[in-house]
Amino acid sequence: MPFLTKKISGQALYFALLISTIAALSLVAVLLLSYTYNFFNTKSNTYVQLQKSSKELFLSAFSKDVALNDTIVKANSYGGEFKLYQSFYGCWKKSVLKSEKKAFKVDAMGLVGTKTDRSTPNFYLKNTNSSLILVGKTKISGNAYVPDSGVRPGIIQGDYYQGNRLIYGSKHRSQKELPKLDKKWLRYLKDLRLGNYKEGKLVSLQKEIKNSFLNEKLVVEAFGSVTIGENILLGNIIVRSNVKITILESAEIKDVLFIAPEIEIKSNVKGRFQCIASRQIKVGKNSVLSFPSSLVVDDRDRTEESIKDHKIDLAEGVILEGEMVYLKSITKKRVSNAKAQIKVAPSSKIIGEIYNEGSIEFLGGISGSIYTTATEVNAYGSKYINHLFNCTVNKFPTGHYGGLPFEKKTDYYLAKWLY
């Protein structure tokens, strides 16, 4: 019996030690878990706060404080710093904000443009003392800036103006010049056409190229015509040809910048990209260019006037979400029988802005703004100057829009986050 009593006492002691060990390990585990939770919770909160403050600074300060192609550095409230850099990318400003605190880094990138407001024109016709004449089912809504001679209804081959009012909005007096664009942006366009890039790594055209905007720009230089067909091009990429670029329906393109004297976008192309040409851009039927896309013809260096071709030609059923711009030399005089520099066919739609230093034959619809020197309609063998026929002009579909870089404008709006 004594032997049995000692054996039971040893087992009890062993059991007590086992329980004590388990309790101690459990306590250590709880303490470790609590420390780990607090550590990562603190890091997570710091990262979230850094990310939040970075976004707030990006949206509030980029348009005011940063000189183009320059970097400003600001201290943040977390013992780190913000670095903010701006440059142009096509029709928009590209803003890059880098935030850091010790091991934490946050990058915010976006395209920004001039912010619209209540006074932003929805239709702006340069004041040449020639009346704007509305015909057929034409309807202008929003802010209309027109010449001193005003607006009146007209007729083309028996087709009268059908509206109950001339302007469904506010009428204002236009100036003898269109609103000025940013001189730095105009210089940037010229540099692009000449191949004067601020930075960029030359690469050959491949079946698939993807490049983040955090990386160095990739540049495809081609001597001769280029066709983009079975290609996937995504991101921070420039494709430049000294002759012509043709884009086919089979291409997958997002955020790429194309530069050439002539650019042709075939029918049924769907993508998101920007085009800058010095002679002509043609867009085939039913193509859809989603926001932010742009079509720019910079004709300032050419002295002769083309009679046969439109500078920007949108076929029927095209949807463009973004910008359309035609720039011409101030010394160039227009030939009387030349075609309108921009033509937008019936059933085509623009959501964004058209800025035209020439004449436009506008037969489609726009939700946004048109700035133009003149309008025209070619029908039944005749040309009708400063007429609008069966077209619609509406306000921007959303309250704000970030668009073209106008001179002396300091309020900007985020167009798109980049990646």
What does this structure look like?
The protein is α/β, with parallel strands linked by helices. It has two domains: 110 residues, no CATH class; 273 residues, no CATH class. It contains two helices and 31 strands. It has a 20-stranded mixed β-sheet that branches. A hairpin with a 5-residue loop joins strand 1 and strand 2. It is elongated and about 115 Å long. About 1% of the residues have low confidence.
In brief, what are we looking at here?
With 419 residues, the chain is α/β, with parallel strands linked by helices.
SSE layout and pairings?
Elements: H1 2-65, E1 71-75, E2 81-89, E3 92-101, E4 104-115, E5 123-125, E6 132-135, E7 139-146, E8 151-153, E9 155-156, E10 159-160, E11 168-173, H2 183-194, E12 201-203, E13 208-211, E14 218-222, E15 226-228, E16 232-235, E17 237-241, E18 244-247, E19 252-265, E20 270-283, E21 288-299, E22 312-314, E23 319-328, E24 342-344, E25 349-362, E26 365-379, E27 382-385, E28 387-389, E29 392-394, E30 402-403, E31 412-417
Parallel strand pairs: 5-7, 5-26, 6-8, 6-28, 7-11, 7-29, 12-14, 13-16, 14-17, 15-18, 16-19, 17-19, 18-19, 19-20, 20-21, 20-22, 21-23, 22-24, 23-25, 24-25, 25-26, 26-29
Antiparallel strand pairs: 1-2, 2-3, 3-4, 4-30, 4-31, 9-10, 26-27
Structural descriptors:
47% strand, alpha/beta, 6-stranded antiparallel β-sheet, 2 helices, 18% helix, 2 domains, single chain, 20-stranded mixed β-sheet, 419 residues
